[in-house]
Specification:
The relative contact order is 0.06. The chain is mainly beta. It starts with a helix and ends with a strand. The strands form ten sheets. Strands 1, 2, 3, 4, 5, 6, 7, 8, 9, 10, 11 and 12 form a twelve-stranded antiparallel sheet that branches. A five-stranded mixed sheet has the order 14-20-19-16-17, with no helix packed on it. Strands 32-31-36-37-38 form a five-stranded antiparallel sheet, with no helix packed on it. The N terminus is likely disordered. Strand 44 and strand 45 form a beta hairpin. The protein is built from two helices and 45 strands. The protein folds into five domains: 138 residues, Galactose-binding domain-like (Jelly Rolls, Sandwich), CATH 2.60.120.260; 85 residues, Immunoglobulin-like (Sandwich), CATH 2.60.40; 66 residues, no CATH class; 162 residues, Lamin Tail domain (Immunoglobulin-like), CATH 2.60.40.1260; 75 residues, Immunoglobulin-like, CATH 2.60.40.
Length: 603
Amino acid sequence: MKKIYFLLLTLLISAVSFGQGTESFDGFTETGSSYTDGTFTGDNASWTFVQSRGDQSITGKSIMLGRNRTPQAELYSGTISGGIGTISFNYQRAFGTDVNLNILVNDIVVGTVVSTDNTIQNSGTITVNQPGDVVIKLTSVNNSDGQVTIDDITWTGFTGTATPSLSVSTPSNNQVYASGTTNVDVTFATANTNAGDQVNITVNGGTTSLDVSSPFSVPTLDGESYSALVELVDASSTVLDSETIMFSVEFPCGLQIGTITSTCDAETLGVDAYTTTIDFTGGGTSTYVINTTGGTGNVDVSGGNNPSVDATGTITITGYGDDTGYTVDIIGDVLNSSCNFSININNPTCVPAATCPGVGAVIVTEIMKNPSAVGDGDGEYFEVYNTTATPIDMIGWIISDDGSNSHTIGASLVVPAMGYAVLGINADMMANGGIPVDYEYSSYALSNGADEINLVCGATTIDAVAYTDGAFPDTAGAAMELSTMNLNATDNDNGANWANAITDLGTGDFGTPGTINANTLSVDTFENTSFSIYPNPASNGFVNITTTSNEAINVTVFDILGKQVISQTINNNRLDVSNLNTGVYILKLNQNGAITTKKLVIK
């Protein structure tokens, strides 16, 4: 009998002590400052860590949970048998953001600790009273809460009666939902309940909903705040545990931004002021604060154009030069609006009206499209040649590639009489010795595949050259290419890296090194087809395009930023422009190989 009693006592002691434990983090081997995920075997349990690091210390080894991590940082144990009576640990705010840390057992919040400074603190004894198998978890209440270093976790085994508990998981306290949210689900969990226990919920002090299940849906309205009292009660309506959750739904942002237009006040070689107009609708529902970058801009909302008062109108902003873009911030009154957004304003290129020579006066001669040619990895440039006896300034000309890339030359670029200029990017210009004009065109990059180069002055295409893909050198003879570091034609007299260019406007042949073929542009072909566009300006949603030929016309329309907005083939001489906003556009017209560009104004 004595042996049996001793055996039972030993088993009882073992069962109780099995639920006790500590964690010193000596088995946590991470030492770096990078956030990582992993597992380790601890003093009395296995542990999993998410987005944590090991370069912070309280005593010896410690673990630090990250902030604003994806997924959210956390530390949790493997299954611990024997339950938990109490738990405690040391913690410290790691950096400058305050700590707000939840302690959970079996995903039920059993305690929360905070810290507003960097002193080492103890959680105190947190009563759990959870029998059976348990999992301990530590994670911040919000992902944005401060990094926290944790050490010296201690827990006791369950020895008493389990306490019924309640935990609300969503919404988090003081959570704000977007405008238009019509229902918010209150999600909760209970533990250690008995027969007859139930959950009741009271919203904003109104009628209590009895014996509800999770999730419980709360109808919501824009701009309203809510308080949900969630109570776990027994059969006699005695409250066993409770939690109050505050949440709200933000007001709508009724203000809508329409067309944004920046127009040059002047067009000179210097810095020119420009005016930006921002169309809006949905005003008159809140008081709006409108600021510009640095507060240097003059925001004019006079004359019936104030979004705080007027339903529709136009905000006008002045005070910036064409060398500077800026940001407009629009903020509504939080008492009735959730509007809080920024608009980036790109500065226009304000240059004098271009002086346009005849077609073929400036032509594209040499094209180099080998990406491995120079150290910057681009290896792309092209060269233009002035075929006239008079210098030509290309300021105001537009360079494009028949696609989304487009650039207006905003500074003086004089191509000497019978001379040439190289247009490229970055290190492509580093070996340009002997070339009269060096112009770095940083916003243009040729493709290593098929591409094209268009030179447009006013509404006239001066030259347009296309080439197809090929190796370097191009053995297929479909593009002009030069050797790696030699930029002018005389460096390639052997013709090893020369091939044919295919021009949109003709059939030029650059097969003779160092010379310009006079037939580069088939001017006759270009001029024999006459295009007319009307009405221009257009305000009724369409324009008519007529020619001397009855064949179909391929029409491509670009906005002033070079973005393609229309591409279609028309057979009835009418182009639908009803989807275009007010502004200036460039039309590229192609009929049976005859190509021109026209300016189109939409009113």
